[in-house]
Design brief:
By secondary structure, the chain is mainly α. Helix content is 89%, strand content 0%.
Length: 94
């Protein structure tokens, strides 16, 4: 049990360090996949098919993370568009 805990801590540490140079899209997709795999494994264990649950959860989570990233980017683009329009309007009124 102690050996398993040490291995788990090592894997989590290496994963956290490995994500440092990733783009926002990559980080959100990877996070979604990891969260989906965990949730899918839990549901799969209850249903009796842990591996299938983890695989399906991982794919679904990665897709969800990717779509969430596109949503966040479009929201930021709209904000910047409105901010720029506000700046131009303020300059014209002076």
């Amino acid at each position: 049990m102690k050996k398993l805990s040490i291995i788990l801590i090592l894997i989590v540490s290496l994963t956290a360090v490995g994500c440092a140079g990733m783009s926002d899209t990559q980080q959100r997709t990877l996070s979604g996949g990891a969260i989906g795999a965990g949730a899918g494994a839990i549901v799969g264990a209850i249903a009796g098919h842990t591996a299938w649950g983890a695989a399906i959860g991982s794919a679904t989570g990665a897709a969800g993370g990717y779509l969430y990233d596109h949503y966040e980017k479009s929201k930021e683009a709209e904000y910047q568009k409105g901010y720029k329009a506000g700046q131009e309007s303020a300059q014209k009124s002076q």
